[in-house]
Design goal:
Layout lengths: L2 H38 L3 H17 L1 H62 L4 H4 L9 H6 L1
Helix pairs in contact: 1-2, 1-3, 2-3
């Protein structure tokens, strides 16, 4: 693998980790700030304000809570897919080569079938007139209109 590809993969990995870590850390900090504010404020009214703010935030932004579990799942999937991706390249390339060779064989076989069909069509052309021998004669619509 070239150094440019390795650098590109490192940059992509950093961006993915940044996209996962930042929401995770923001959610964690928000929860810790709420707990710290409740512990530091002496008056019950002040605690009620913090509790109301947290309730509004969690009711208006339920995605913050729901995405936290999804982020952990995405992190696990990324780690697993990173391992499986390198293992899957070789079998996928073999499958691609097998599919291409099968395509070429089927293409060749169908070309042969086309040639044989065209041969038989040319050979049976004189018999085509026999197929219409017993058909009813076609009537002209002009003759019917005159009657």
């Amino acid at each position: 693998m070239s150094s440019q590809q390795q650098a590109s993969e490192r940059l992509q990995s950093r961006l993915v980790w940044l996209g996962i870590r930042v929401p995770f850390l923001l959610t964690l900090l928000m929860m810790l700030a709420g707990v710290a504010a409740v512990l530091m404020l002496p008056a019950p009214e002040q605690v009620a304000l913090v509790a109301d703010a947290m309730l509004i935030l969690l009711v208006l932004c339920p995605a913050v809570v729901l995405l936290f579990a999804l982020l952990i799942g995405a992190l696990a999937l990324i780690v697993l897919l990173r391992r499986w991706g390198t293992r899957a390249r070789s079998p996928l390339r073999r499958l691609e080569a097998l599919t291409a060779s099968a395509h070429q064989r089927v293409d060749g076989w169908l070309s042969g079938v086309d040639g044989h069909v065209l041969d038989w069509v040319v050979r049976l052309e004189p018999l085509r007139s026999l197929l219409t021998l017993f058909d009813a004669p076609a009537q002209n619509s002009e003759n019917e209109a005159d009657l």
